[in-house]
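for the recovery benchmark. tokens below, seq after
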């Protein structure tokens, strides 16, 4: 059974932009926690050909009910024309951690 929480993934072109966006997300109370990983090498189709880039991954933990607000926020503040914004359902987890997520995302 879903817990009411999600993990949202997005990638950014630099560590500085990823840090800036993570802080903005938290300052708006759109998430309880944001992890920044990278650099990672991404390979993808873009404009009809295979491309690649160094990217930094944000792993954003929040309530399912906050996703629409978070998605709009990311679409507005993200530097990419077509940003990756993917939501993954948290089905279960550490009860204390999930309670902390709940308290941290009013």
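predicted aa per position
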């Amino acid at each position: 059974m879903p817990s009411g929480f999600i993990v949202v993934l997005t990638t950014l072109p630099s560590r500085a932009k990823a840090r800036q966006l993570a802080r903005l997300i938290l300052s708006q109370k759109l998430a309880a926690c944001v992890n920044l990983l990278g650099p990672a090498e991404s390979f993808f189709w873009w404009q009809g050909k295979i491309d690649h880039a160094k990217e930094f991954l944000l792993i954003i933990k929040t309530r399912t009910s906050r996703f629409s607000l978070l998605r709009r926020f990311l679409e507005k503040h993200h530097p990419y024309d077509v940003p990756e914004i993917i939501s993954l359902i948290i089905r279960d987890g550490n009860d204390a951690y999930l309670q902390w997520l709940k308290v941290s995302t009013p």
